[in-house]
From TrEMBL:
<dbReference type="InterPro" id="IPR002099">
    <property type="entry name" value="MutL/Mlh/PMS"/>
</dbReference>
<keyword id="KW-0227">DNA damage</keyword>
<keyword id="KW-0255">Endonuclease</keyword>
<dbReference type="InterPro" id="IPR036890">
    <property type="entry name" value="HATPase_C_sf"/>
</dbReference>
<feature type="domain" description="MutL C-terminal dimerisation">
    <location>
        <begin position="426"/>
        <end position="569"/>
    </location>
</feature>
<dbReference type="InterPro" id="IPR014721">
    <property type="entry name" value="Ribsml_uS5_D2-typ_fold_subgr"/>
</dbReference>
<protein>
    <recommendedName>
        <fullName>DNA mismatch repair protein MutL</fullName>
    </recommendedName>
</protein>
<dbReference type="Pfam" id="PF01119">
    <property type="entry name" value="DNA_mis_repair"/>
</dbReference>
<comment type="similarity">
    <text>Belongs to the DNA mismatch repair MutL/HexB family.</text>
</comment>
<comment type="function">
    <text>This protein is involved in the repair of mismatches in DNA. It is required for dam-dependent methyl-directed DNA mismatch repair. May act as a 'molecular matchmaker', a protein that promotes the formation of a stable complex between two or more DNA-binding proteins in an ATP-dependent manner without itself being part of a final effector complex.</text>
</comment>
<dbReference type="InterPro" id="IPR020568">
    <property type="entry name" value="Ribosomal_Su5_D2-typ_SF"/>
</dbReference>
<dbReference type="InterPro" id="IPR014790">
    <property type="entry name" value="MutL_C"/>
</dbReference>
<dbReference type="InterPro" id="IPR037198">
    <property type="entry name" value="MutL_C_sf"/>
</dbReference>
<dbReference type="GO" id="GO:0004519">
    <property type="term" value="F:endonuclease activity"/>
</dbReference>
<dbReference type="InterPro" id="IPR042121">
    <property type="entry name" value="MutL_C_regsub"/>
</dbReference>
<dbReference type="Pfam" id="PF08676">
    <property type="entry name" value="MutL_C"/>
</dbReference>
<dbReference type="InterPro" id="IPR042120">
    <property type="entry name" value="MutL_C_dimsub"/>
</dbReference>
Length: 611
């Protein structure tokens, strides 16, 4: 029997490694940006076409490479950052595995131009499918320029698994933002299909956050800083008032390397305990500086997971530092027990003998059954005298029963309850619930969830027939989004218009809203806030529930535009709401799957009263 174990060819081995390292265009962007940072560049330009599928180009002014290094960088496990095993526990660079360039070259057409600052001429190398097709001297500026074309051209199965351009572009933006946040002292720019998305000048961390996410973030940030013998912590957290429904703006960096760590995330979340509802997440950009020998970054090819030597201590430091910043900058509500300002203006600085107590007089002869107009009030002050005498007229009207017409009843509610649909009188309870009497007892309806269900089904119809009516705004509103949300909004623009929004692009990361859906009513609507909530709710539905695009949009708009608990409704409004609810396909359950209607039978009431 012949031997069956053999070494894989380099081309096959590189493609296997590429499956781990380069999962999508964003993976290649991450590796190339980190290489530019490790090369000492302070100016990095990223150019992307067709969401990275056609072209990814990185231009930096780093140290550059010699002719030999330029050729060696495409070999597997070739790196300048690790020389022996002990170096793995003293890593300060972004990359160290030596697999990225070989993996990218195995599945794309790569051209690299590089020159050291001390050299007069550089080197140009072309590689296609791990095979060097050209190498020659070239005149180029100091630094390195790498162009990756036709990613996954020789692995069509992997290319077919790529998502749409807007989705892939959002992943590229995520990776770009992470590297840019970690290095605010480096100039970054990003161009996509000829359009400039970012132009980030050198600055401090706060300036970089504002440049990335928008000017309105300037007032949202609270500094965090703590120095201990275990770690040094610095960065910013967001004020609770600006928390969002998704985790998108939460960043941890360990020695300037972006990481994902649910354990440390819990430390920050617990510091915001009782300041945020359960479904809201605060903004934070936090940097941990720690001795590399006390962590292990060689856990996963993406290098976003880290193991710590003293995880519990880091958790405690993180939580206490965030709580201290919340208290130090008066984010949390406080009480001044020395003086309660709410009562300070009610204190009278008069002598006791000058204070005249109020006096109250009343009419002892008041008769509530008297018909005389002079006896309409039973309360008197010292300035009024009443001479009205009690009257016995009309006393019998107290015991008269108003005759009510018998109304035809139609069974429109499932199970055994019957709802009177004509001239039905409803009562609102605590401005949250609508209560009605039915044959078997009481019916209680949650007004907010009922309205959400009505709007949700209506918006689904608009998305299907593309005929959502729009109510034009008196003054169009300009909305500036961060780059990630703007790309998402562009991909959803047709469906958003189907819902009834009149919206169009207006320059860089900016939209103009000229109308909102008629279904939202004629009340004063903040178009900017509503649109931002629509995008945020869509992201939340996509992440948590994995719903379809249209279902997520309809759900998000319904939840954000429905009447809220605490809204007072008139009788006609309650009648309309109930009629529209029972006209829905699924009137019994909310958009979230919770019951909208609850019934309390007479038997249950009797049991409460121990009858």
């Amino acid at each position: 029997m012949t031997d069956i174990i053999h070494l894989l060819p380099d081309a096959v081995a590189n493609q296997i490694a590429a499956g781990e390292v380069v999962q999508r265009p964003a993976s290649a962007v991450k590796e190339l940006l980190e290489n530019s940072i490790d090369a000492g560049a302070d100016k990095i330009q990223l150019v992307v076409k067709d969401a990275g599928k056609a072209l990814i180009q990185i231009i930096d002014n780093g140290c550059g490479m010699s002719v030999t290094d330029a050729r060696m960088c495409f070999e597997r496990h070739a790196t300048s950052k690790v020389k022996k095993a002990e170096d793995l526990f003293a890593i300060r660079t972004m990359g160290f595995r030596g697999e990225a360039m070989a993996s990218i070259a195995a599945i794309a057409q790569v051209e690299m131009k590089t020159r050291r600052h001390e050299d007069e001429i550089g080197t140009c190398i072309s590689i296609e499918g791990a095979q060097v097709t050209n190498q020659e001297p070239v005149a180029t500026s100091p630094g390195t320029q790498i162009s990756i074309k036709n990613l996954f051209f020789n692995t069509p199965a992997r290319r077919n698994f790529l998502k749409s351009n807007p989705v892939e572009m959002r992943h590229i933006l995520d990776e770009f933002q992470r590297v840019a946040l970690a290095h605010p002292g480096v100039f970054f720019s990003l161009h996509h299909d000829g359009t400039e998305i970012f132009n980030l000048p050198k600055g401090n961390l706060k300036q970089r956050i504002v440049h990335l996410f928008g000017n309105n973030y300037n007032e949202r940030l609270v500094p965090v800083e703590e120095e201990t013998t275990i770690i040094n912590l610095k960065g910013y957290i967001g004020k609770p008032a600006f928390a969002k429904k998704t985790r998108g703006e939460q960043f941890f960096f360990v020695n300037n390397r972006f990481i994902k760590d649910p354990y440390l995330n819990h430390a920050v979340s617990s510091a915001f305990e009782e300041l945020l509802p359960d479904d809201s997440y605060p903004l934070y950009v936090l940097f941990i500086e720690i001795d590399p020998s006390k962590i292990d970054v060689n856990v996963h090819p993406t290098k976003t997971e880290i193991k710590y030597l003293d995880e519990k201590s880091i958790y405690a430091i993180m939580k206490s530092a965030v709580k201290r910043s919340i208290g130090r900058y008066n984010i949390a509500p406080t009480l001044d027990f020395d003086q309660e300002t709410g009562f300070s203006n009610m204190i009278t600085h008069k002598a006791v003998e000058d204070i005249i107590p109020p006096s109250i007089n009343f009419n002892p002869d008041f008769n509530p059954f008297a018909s005389d107009s002079s006896s309409t009030s039973g309360y008197a002050t010292s300035s009024r005298n009443y001479e009205a005498k009690p009257s016995a007229k009309n006393w019998g009207s107290l015991y008269e029963i108003t005759e009510q017409p018998i109304v035809a009843q139609t069974s429109i509610y499932a199970d055994e309850t019957v709802l009177e649909t004509k001239q039905k009188q409803y009562m609102q309870l605590h401005n949250r619930y609508i209560v009605s009497q039915i044959k078997s007892g009481l019916m209680v309806i949650d007004q907010q969830m009922a309205h959400e269900r009505i709007l949700y089904e209506r918006f689904l119809v608009h998305l299907d027939d593309r005929k959502g009516a729009s109510q034009q705004s008196l003054f169009p509103q300009t909305i500036t989004l961060n780059a990630h949300d703007f790309e998402l909004a562009k991909s959803l623009l047709d469906d958003i218009k189907s819902l009834g929004f009149d919206v169009r692009e207006f320059g860089k990361n900016t939209l103009v809203v000229e109308g909102v859906p008629v279904d939202l009513g004629s009340s004063n609507i903040n178009e900017t806030q509503l649109f931002e909530q629509l995008i945020e709710g869509f992201k939340n539905s996509q992440q948590e529930l994995k719903l379809s695009k249209r279902d997520s949009l309809a759900r998000s708009l319904a939840k954000n535009s429905a009447i809220k608990a605490g809204t007072s409704l008139g009788q006609e409004e309650m009648n309309t709401l109930i009629d529209e609810l029972f006209a829905c396909k699924t009137p019994n359950f909310s958009v979230s799957g919770k019951p909208i209607i609850q019934t309390i039978t007479l038997a249950e009431l009797d049991k409460k009263f121990e009858k």
